[in-house]
């Protein structure tokens, strides 16, 4: 079966979110009372990751998540008068301007488009951030549609998210669709929940749990391209 409906995750799949969040954090931390050291940034990343995992489990809403992560950072640092709402607003504004792609992302989508593949973006990111980053990127014209969980009212890995995506794609064919992403808990678990094949972009050389079905494991975007052009 040929896969020609490609459901790409955004961050850490096509967009270099690691660089983007680092630039945004360092840009706004000091003005919000936080010394932007490497150690503190690493603490923030761990707090942020845990909050997004809670979102995937349905334990927190998106609106609560984005503020709670900075509340928890202030608490960790012992800062009692920190304004987490302002920190979040400043950070999201700075992040929305970061459209950093991986080196091979443009060539990947260009080659896939030339092969008549239909390319879609599926992301759990914050709407105003993702819209800003996507519109500021040369990769935007390659996406037939962009699906952002905050607009959908449900997030990956919930099956409902993928059901709604399928409903919104013209001439959708379940047997020709495939999910491509880096997150085991969001993209790959979501693909499994929706009974879709998937490509796991394993940047960190991690070991997946045996409970997950992974159609193809890639260590680079070039490997993703080779698989999709031959299947």
Please, could you describe this protein's structure?
The chain is an alpha/beta fold. The chain contains 10 helices and 6 strands. The protein folds into 2 domains: 141 residues, Rossmann fold (3-Layer(aba) Sandwich); 79 residues, Putative phosphatase, domain 2 (DNA polymerase, domain 1, Orthogonal Bundle), CATH 1.10.150. It has a 6-stranded parallel beta sheet with strand order 3-2-1-4-5-6, sandwiched between helices. The radius of gyration is 18 Å and the shape is globular. 36% of the residues are buried. The mean pLDDT is 94.
Number-wise, the strands total 6
Tally of separate domains: 2
CATH topology of the largest domain: Rossmann fold
Poorly predicted spans: none
Termini separation comes to 7 Å
Task: Give a brief outline of the structure.
With 231 residues, the protein is an alpha/beta fold. 48% of the residues lie in helices and 11% in strands. The protein folds into 2 domains: 5-16 and 101-229, 3-Layer(aba) Sandwich (Rossmann fold), CATH 3.40.50; 17-95, Orthogonal Bundle (DNA polymerase, domain 1), CATH 1.10.150.
Highlighted features:
231 residues; alpha/beta; Rossmann fold; DNA polymerase, domain 1; 6-stranded parallel sheet; 48% helix
Layout of secondary structure:
Elements: E1 5-8, H1 17-28, H2 38-56, H3 62-77, H4 84-95, H5 105-114, E2 118-123, H6 127-135, E3 145-148, H7 149-152, H8 159-168, E4 177-181, H9 184-193, E5 198-201, E6 216-218, H10 221-229
Parallel strand pairs: 1-2, 1-4, 2-3, 4-5, 5-6
Helix pairs in contact: 1-4, 2-3, 3-4, 5-10
């Amino acid at each position: 079966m040929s896969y020609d409906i490609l459901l790409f995750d955004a961050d850490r799949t096509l967009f270099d979110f690691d660089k983007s969040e680092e630039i945004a954090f360092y840009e706004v931390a000091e003005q919000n009372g936080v010394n932007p050291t490497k150690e503190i940034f690493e603490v923030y990343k761990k707090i942020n990751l845990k909050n997004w995992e809670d979102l995937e489990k349905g334990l927190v809403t998106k609106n609560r998540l984005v503020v709670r992560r900075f509340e928890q950072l202030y608490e960790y640092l012992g800062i009692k008068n920190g304004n987490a709402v302002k920190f979040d607003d400043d950070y999201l504004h700075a992040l929305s301007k970061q459209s950093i792609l991986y080196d091979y992302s443009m060539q990947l989508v260009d080659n896939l488009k030339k092969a008549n593949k239909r390319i879609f973006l599926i992301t759990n990111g914050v709407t105003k951030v993702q819209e800003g980053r996507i519109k500021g990127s040369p990769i935007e014209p390659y996406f037939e549609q962009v699906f952002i969980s905050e607009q959908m009212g449900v997030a990956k890995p919930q099956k409902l998210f993928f059901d709604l995506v399928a409903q919104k794609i013209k001439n959708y064919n379940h047997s020709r669709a495939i999910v491509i992403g880096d997150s085991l808990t969001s993209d790959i678990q979501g693909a499994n929940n929706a009974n879709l094949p998937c490509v796991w972009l394993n940047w960190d050389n991690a070991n997946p749990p045996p409970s997950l079905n992974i159609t193809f494991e890639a260590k680079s975007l070039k490997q993703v391209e080779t698989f999709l052009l031959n299947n």
